[in-house]
Amino acid sequence: MLIDTHAHLFDERFQLDLPAVLQRAEAADVQRVIGIGIDRETSVATVRLANQYPLLAAAVGIQPNHAAEAQPGDWDAIVKLAEAEPRVVAIGETGLDRYWDRTPFDVQEDYFARHLALARRLGKPFVIHCREAEADVVRMLRAEFETHGPVRAVMHSFSGDLATARSCLAMGLFISFAGMITYQTAQSLRDVAKEIPLDRLLVETDCPYLAPIPKRGKRNEPAFVVHTAACLATIQGLTEAAIGEATTKNAQRLFGLE
Fold first, then answer.
1. 39, 40, 56, 133: which could join 96 in a potential S-S bond, CB 3.0 to 4.6 Å?
2. Dihedrals phi, psi of 222, to nearest 5 degrees
3. What tens-digit pLDDT sequence spans the chain (258 residues)?
4. Distance in Å from the first CA to the final CA of the chain
5. How far is CA 195 from CA 200, 201, 252, in A?
6. Peptide bond into 222 cis (omega under 30)
7. Alpha carbon of 3 to those of 56, 64, 93, 206: distances in Å?
8. How far apart are alpha carbons 38 and 50 in whole angstroms?
9. β-strand partners of 93
10. DSSP the chain
11. In 3D, which of 79, 83, 27, 85 has the Cα closest to residue 57?
């Protein structure tokens, strides 16, 4: 039993065979998949898919690298989806990114703050993208934490250091790992994963990106989350069943899934 907490199923690479992709996920004991939007168009598409396929739930938002492209009305559309659509279980993905130079950083911060406020108002968790901006993300999360208390969110596809993880854990966040934790070059990330408490651990694919070993180089898909979970089990010294049970309960708790 597993929950893939981060999948971009709107991607054109799934257009021809999404029903088969979801059948393979169910055959691999994937109980739910959280589809993640990155802008207005893909958030609408993700909600549509969640309404079509019972396996799916949705998160809606404008990812930092797409914030500069947002048109008038796009944010209002995200708000309306989050307010009105019962299949929307989270806000995002949102966050900050200093690796790509697609959106001025002050615009990224503005949109991150909007997502935090929307999630807080609606009582929904939010999904954080962070790339080479750990100090900035922690700074904004700490301001949220000091003003409003524990932060109901997940650091998705975590790639930061242990100090960042501990700062996030102290504020109440969950930490999610994707396929790159299986890569030979990712020992430092595995060292971090070993220190994450079992009750704060999540697993994801971030598909169609970051396919885990032994599927690296192929299009990633939700069924492949079993390989990342198996790697986490080895890292934590647990059985795959124990990791599956724990991460599933954690995802159910964070996203309010039945």
1. 133
2. -55, -35
3. 999 999 999 999 999 999 999 999 999 999 999 999 999 999 999 999 999 999 999 999 999 999 999 999 999 999 999 999 999 999 999 999 999 999 999 999 999 999 999 999 999 999 999 999 999 999 999 999 999 999 999 999 999 999 999 999 999 999 999 999 999 999 999 999 999 999 999 999 999 999 999 999 999 999 999 999 999 999 999 999 999 999 999 999 999 997
4. 13
5. 11, 10, 22
6. no
7. 10, 25, 17, 12
8. 15
9. none
10. -EEEEEE-TTSGGGTTTHHHHHHHHHHTTEEEEEEE-SSHHHHHHHHHHHHH-TTEEEEE---GGGGGGPPTTHHHHHHHHHHH-TTEEEEEEEEEESSS-SS-HHHHHHHHHHHHHHHHHHT--EEEEEES-HHHHHHHHHHHHHHH-S--EEETT--S-HHHHHHHHHTT-EEEE-GGGGSTT-HHHHHHHHTS-GGGEEE---BTS-PPTTSTTSPP-GGGHHHHHHHHHHHHT--HHHHHHHHHHHHHHHHT--
11. 85
Residues in the chain: 258
As given in the structure block, the two tokens for residue 21 are 């992709």
Burial class (CB in 10 A: 0-12, 13-18, 19+), 234: middle
